[in-house]
Specification:
Low-confidence stretches: 227-237
Helix content: 55-70%
Largest sheet: 5 strands, parallel
Mean pLDDT: 79
Shape: elongated
Structural class: alpha/beta
Distance between the termini: 60 Å
Length: 237
């Protein structure tokens, strides 16, 4: 094993997939498989002890249950990155994986070369996304950026800087506990902040709050796209 070998742990509940990946990846130069197993508490202990650079896992139900598997692994192995093998081409699975910290995502019909490429790219610090999700990912990024600009442009009488931060995280789907951890606040403080935000904006709950700002982002982006070249030129001048 050379100094550039990528240490990989296969955490796959699907035995057939796990064994196939073990046969395919175990023969590849530049990779070393440090472990392969289905999900269990003992497996997690062994996995953490192996300190892999990459964890390759299938879409485990346990990964998104309490305690959240990916977040637990991210806390225990902050330098380790994960690549998810999606069993189905479902957007909700992809975005849930991204939200939980997966840096790479491939579908189960990916070729061996594509899986290998994803592992190497993620190990190099890059992110990997299936082409079928790229358009939606760009759309979400565009909405988020527009929403952030809208929030920053609001006057001090509407939302404070801290409240704007909270709205961005709420729109990103973070829970009160997750927001508290990110901003180093107590969950009670976050709850009070959100209550005040709802009162200021007139939103009935956090879902309607997120919907409002996402709709505003889409509307603003649509107005920008509908501008004629002459209008844009006047704005630039």
């Amino acid at each position: 094993m050379s100094g550039v070998d990528v240490r990989v742990f296969l955490l796959c509940e699907n035995r057939l997939l796990r064994e196939a990946l073990l046969r395919i990846l175990g023969k590849r130069a530049g990779l070393v498989i440090v472990g392969a197993s289905g999900y269990s508490l003992d497996t997690l202990k062994n996995l953490i002890a192996c300190e892999p650079q990459i964890i390759l896992l299938d879409f485990l139900g346990e990964a998104f249950a309490e305690p959240l598997l990916l977040r637990h692994l991210r806390e225990a192995l902050p330098e380790t990155r994960t690549v998810m093998v999606g069993m189905e081409a479902k957007e909700e699975h992809f975005f849930q994986s991204v939200r939980e910290g997966a840096a790479g995502y491939v579908l189960r019909d990916a070729s061996a070369a594509e899986v290998l490429g994803a592992i190497r790219s993620v190990a190099a610090g890059e992110a990997v996304c299936p082409a079928c999700f790229s358009a939606t990912l760009f759309e979400c990024a565009s909405q988020l950026l527009t929403m952030q600009e809208n929030l920053r442009s609001r006057g001090p009488s509407e939302l404070s800087r801290r409240e704007q931060q909270l709205v961005e995280l709420v729109c990103g789907g973070d829970t009160n506990k997750e927001i508290a951890s990110r901003l180093h606040l107590s969950a009670h403080t976050v709850k009070n902040h959100i209550y005040r935000i709802l009162k200021k904006t007139g939103a009935s709950d956090r879902i309607s709050l997120a919907d409002h700002y996402r709709a505003t982002a889409r509307s603003d982006r649509s107005r920008t796209q509908d501008r004629t070249p002459q209008t844009v030129a006047r704005m630039i001048v």
